[in-house]
Amino acid sequence: MSDRLSVRWTVVARDCPRPVFACPACGGDRPFHPSGKLRLNANGKRLDAWLIYKCDGCDRTWNRPIFERRLAADVPPGDLAALRSADPAFVRRLAFDLSALRRKTPVILQSDRVDVEKLVTGGDQGATGVEIALVVPHPVGLRLDRLLAAELGLTRSRIGALAKAGRLDVDGGGNALKRPPRDGQCIRLNLDGMGDRQAILAAAG
To answer: Which Pfam family, any one of them, does this sequence belong to (predicted)?
Structure first.
């Protein structure tokens, strides 16, 4: 019997980040969402590419530049094929590029809705502790303490109390619970002597 249950949580955002702009048609600031469509133009040997967004209120479009006036030979063949086919995984990766979005607007709305896939990688339900390894493919707008509370069936105040008591250890220090989860982050929880140990272990994996 292992004293620690090891699990991997893959945390996937349900919704893409939405940049906020002034929409001329709506007459005020509105969030724009990615439409899932791309635009690729060729001018001689040079290419321009955009990710197309739509206003939440009126469907007015905004074309976010991916690159402009780039030599076709400088675009990786895989990226070029994905642009031409509007590959959904490629579009999603572009839509979650917060650095690129922040160069266009300071206001970006991030949803806190996520799906969590759990996989036990070691140990068993007789363990007295749990170690959670996070896989976060794209940025999410949910705080880590909210994620842990929801997925372990605990309150946020209980999560905070466990951290304060030294039972909950999180990569990134004390403030990590107040920030979104990071890819590769690890959380360790000591359940020894806790009455709801079995319920927490079951929820964890």
So the answer is: DUF1062
